[in-house]
């Protein structure tokens, strides 16, 4: 993709999104110059799957001057948490209790506050995410008790199954929305508000189901080359 095409893709997608839905440009496997092209087009929120790649790529960019923000959206190994909290503004892919404890510990160490989303497993064929809502609710109770002062539970994330069956995709997104409603009624003091759902192939359905952040890679930057 040229810089012009990237800008055009971003503008086209933005034009289809309601005002309250934020576009997260997923730049994994694409070079820093593509991120620069997106920044020039006014894009500020980026998603990366792998911590090391994010550090290398976003280290090249003067993020502060451009108000760029970076979210980690891929499953995070425990030994990468230290680096992840340094580079990221939010970790969307929190999929186990231990990870919250580690994020709190590392943020406490460097005196930083970070946002997280709880990732819920809603599609039968995807593997990532908490498999039970109960675990997320138990964590909410601990947040409510003040156990994680450096971590802000700001939302929920999910990936829909890869399928042509629109009803299954829709079900996955509505499951996430219902969980947010449950959390908001049980723990109104927690700021759990964002619904990160929808990718290049299914974001229109996600928006209909109440998404507040869509994570789009291919439709902005083109196909990824995985080697
Ligand atoms: C790669 C990725 C995306 C973007 O997917 P596209 O289909 O390229 O838009 C979104 N979310 C997650 C978690 C991803 O890993």
Would you mind describing this structure in some detail?
This protein is α/β, with parallel strands linked by helices and 227 residues long. It has a single domain (3-221), classed as Alpha-Beta Barrel (TIM Barrel), CATH 3.20.20.10. The protein has ten helices and eight strands. It has helices at residues 3-16, 32-40, 51-58, 63-66, 81-87, 97-110, 133-144, 166-186, 203-208, 218-221, and strands spanning 22-26, 45-48, 69-72, 90-94, 114-119, 151-157, 194-196, 213-216. Strands 7-6-5-4-3-2-1-8 form an eight-stranded parallel beta sheet. Helix 1 (3-16) packs across helix 2. The longest helix has 21 residues, at 166-186. Bound molecules: pyridoxal-5'-phosphate. The site of pyridoxal-5'-phosphate (PLP) has 14 residues, from strand 8 and helix 10.
The outline comes out as: globular
Distance between the termini: 17 Å
As residue ranges, the low-confidence spans are none
- Quick one: CATH class? Alpha Beta
Strand content: 15-25%
- Main beta sheet strand tally, sense and closure: 8 strands, parallel
Succession of helices and strands: HEHEHHEHEHEHEHEHEH
Spatial extent as radius of gyration: 17 Å
Share of helical residues = 40-55%
- The figure for the number of domains is 1
If helices are DSSP runs of H or I spanning 4 or more residues, what is the number of helices? 10
CATH topology: TIM Barrel
Per CATH, which architecture?
Alpha-Beta Barrel
Bound molecules: pyridoxal-5'-phosphate
Family: Belongs to the pyridoxal phosphate-binding protein YggS/PROSC family.
Function: Pyridoxal 5'-phosphate (PLP)-binding protein, which is involved in PLP homeostasis.
InterPro entries: Ala_racemase_N (IPR001608), PLP-binding_barrel (IPR029066), PyrdxlP_homeostasis (IPR011078)
Protein name: Pyridoxal phosphate homeostasis protein
